[in-house]
Amino acid sequence: MSEAPTLVAFLGGLSGSPLEEMLAAGRRAATLDSLERALSTGAFASAILVADSRQGPAELPPGVVVDVDAEAFHFGRRLAGVIDRFGLEKPLYFSGGSVPLLSAQEFVGIAQELGRGDGLVITNNLYSADLVAFSPGEALRKIKLPDSDNPLARLLAEQAGLAPRPLPRSVSSQFDIDSPSDLAILTLMGGAGPRLQSLLDDWRLDVASYRGVLGYFTDPTAQVLVAGRAGSQVWQYLERETACRVRFFAEERGMQAEGRLGGGQARSLLGFYLAEVGVERFFATLAELADAAFLDSRVLLAHLGIEASRADRFLSDIGRHEEIKEPFLRQFSEAARRAPIPVLLGGHSLVSGGLMALVEYAWQEHDRRLAGEA
Questions:
Q1: Are 118 and 5 in contact, with CB atoms under 8 Å apart?
Q2: Distance between CA atoms of residues 330 and 215, nearest Å
Q3: CATH assignment, 180-367
Q4: Which residue, 84, 228, 214, 62, is CA-closest to 145?
Q5: How far is Cα 38 from Cα 31, in angstroms, rounded to an integer?
Q6: Strand, helix or coil at 332?
Q7: Which secondary-structure segment (H or E) carries 203?
Q8: Could you give the dihedral angle defined by the CA atoms of residues 336, 342, 347 and 349, in that order, rounded to the nearest 10 degrees?
Q9: How far apart are CA 156 and CA 137, in angstroms?
């Protein structure tokens, strides 16, 4: 019988401001929920929680062991060390806080696919992965070890010759806790595991801006603008699952995975326009194009060469512009807040899994409203 896969979750490297600490706590809770959900199926041999010195969850699910390393972090070397040290033949890696909505049955499906033989790499995104399951584990020795998880699946396919098996693009496979905005979306729609849900209940995040855009997705007369690192799968989802019209600007996919984030390499059509006309005219123009806008602000910042701190980016995402230290991002975020239309700011997750989650929840609310009127 083929050896059952082993779960490997990485958790750490996030601390500092209150919002960063909140996100770290949310990711930690979501990771433990995911490990417990997967282990409850019996499809996995065990689970390894790879942490830095700052992590120390007091109550671990049965079957989870913690591997702590306080040395300078390099993703690829760290993963290779864990695979060698534990002798893993079929690892299923995911980053802390990613795929918090992945169901027990979906975890089972990945385990079953790995069990069919060697030579496979299963991922939620071949070009910017945060879940990668592969067999054999020693295939990692054949690639140039990456410093982040984003290119891991692609490298295993291209350099180690593993056959790629992308997971279906769904809310559960694409939703990632990457920003406080993702926690707000989870607060609105529900579906979090017990540990994370307990935190969300305590935090009581403001979800008014997210609730305010739901009606546009189900309105045939409305138009929604989406801009950032969103792929054709997201566009296809929006075309299939929304009643509204969609303006779609897909820019700088793989920006981080391919190293274009710094050095002035990122380029954005909206970024050129923003630089030309300024923030006030930029948002006035968006209001002429759509009834609501979802912007991956990281692409615009990279295009403009703005090196805002993670704390400032998180403050921008949830509309607390007055606390932002970076001058341009503070001005941009304030203008977004005052825009003639609802403008939601965030990272990659906002224009991928987060957007898909909002659409799904919008239809649930729509159907509940119709049922109440009947």
A1: no
A2: 28
A3: 3.40.50
A4: 84
A5: 11
A6: helix
A7: helix 194-203
A8: 180
A9: 10
Residue 197: partners with Cβ closer than 8 Å, 6 or more residues away: 190
Strand order in the sheet with 131-135: 64-68, 46-51, 6-11, 91-95, 131-135, 120-123, 163-166
Per-residue pLDDT of the chain (374 residues; tens, 9 = 90+): 468 999 999 998 677 899 999 999 999 999 999 999 999 999 999 999 998 765 555 678 999 999 987 677 899 999 999 999 999 999 999 999 999 999 999 999 999 999 888 899 999 999 889 999 999 999 999 999 999 999 999 999 999 999 999 999 899 999 999 999 999 999 999 999 999 999 999 999 999 999 999 999 999 999 999 999 988 889 999 999 999 999 999 998 766 656 666 666 888 999 999 999 999 999 999 999 999 999 999 999 999 999 999 999 999 999 999 999 999 999 999 999 999 999 999 999 999 999 999 999 999 999 998 888 76
3-state DSSP helix/strand/coil percent for the chain, to nearest 5?
45, 15, 35
Q: Is 34 helix (H, G, I), strand (E, B) or coil?
A: helix
CATH number of the 6-170 domain: 3.90.550.10
Task: Give me the residue spans of the domains in the chain.
Answer: 6-170, 180-367
- What is the C-alpha separation between 325 and 323, in angstroms, rounded? 6
Here the tokens at position 363 are 């239809």
On whether the CB atoms of residues 223 and 245 are closer than 8 A, the answer is yes
Give the position of tokens 């060390």: 81
Q: Which residue has the tokens 């920003």?
A: 179
Which residues, 6+ apart, have CB-to-CB distance to 37 below 8 Å?
102, 103, 104, 107, 193
CA dihedral 272, 277, 279, 283 (to 10 degrees): -90
- CB 316, CB 279: distance < 8 Å: no
Predicted model pTM: 0.91
Q: Which amino acid is at 297?
A: S
Q: Report the alpha-carbon distance of residue 253 to residue 230 in Å, rounded.
A: 7
